[in-house]
Design goal:
This protein is mainly alpha-helical and 116 residues long. It has five helices and two strands, in the order H-E-E-H-H-H-H. The protein has one domain.
Length: 116
C-alpha cells in the first residue's frame, strides 16, 4: 500500500507571437468588415480587439479571414496607404493577417493579448 500525490497546474503556452508596425494602421483602418450587423475595420480587429469585446481567437478568426480576403481583392486600393517612410507595406500586412488568421483557426480557445 502506498500514497501517491500529484500536483498539476496548467501553464499558459504561447501559440502565436506577431508584431506589425503601427505605420500599417491607416491601411488596416480602410479595410471594412461587415459582421453581425456591425461595421468594423481590420484595424479594430488587429489593434483594438479587446475594446470590441473579443477575448478568444475563435471570435476573430473569421473576421481576419474576411479582412485578408478584402485586402487581396483590391491590392491597388490598399497599396496607396503604404507608409511613405518605407516602414511596412501592403505585403507585410497581408502576410501578418494571414499568419494571425491561421493561428486563430489552429488555436480557437487561445486568449488574445494585445500590447500597443
Amino acid at each position: 500500500m502506498s500514497l501517491d500525490i500529484t500536483l498539476t497546474q496548467l501553464q499558459p503556452v504561447g501559440v502565436f507571437d506577431g508584431n506589425i508596425t503601427h505605420n500599417l494602421g491607416k491601411m488596416a483602418a480602410h479595410v471594412q468588415i461587415e459582421w453581425a450587423g456591425r461595421t468594423l475595420t481590420l484595424y479594430d480587429i488587429l489593434w483594438r480587439a479587446d475594446e470590441h469585446g473579443f477575448t478568444r481567437a475563435h471570435e476573430i478568426a473569421e473576421l481576419l479571414d474576411v479582412g485578408w480576403n478584402e485586402l487581396l481583392a483590391d491590392p491597388d486600393r490598399y497599396k496607396q496607404y503604404n507608409p511613405p517612410n518605407g516602414w511596412g507595406n501592403y505585403d507585410n500586412l497581408c502576410d501578418f493577417v494571414y499568419q494571425y488568421r491561421n493561428a486563430c483557426w489552429d488555436n480557437p480557445q487561445a486568449s488574445i493579448e494585445i500590447s500597443r
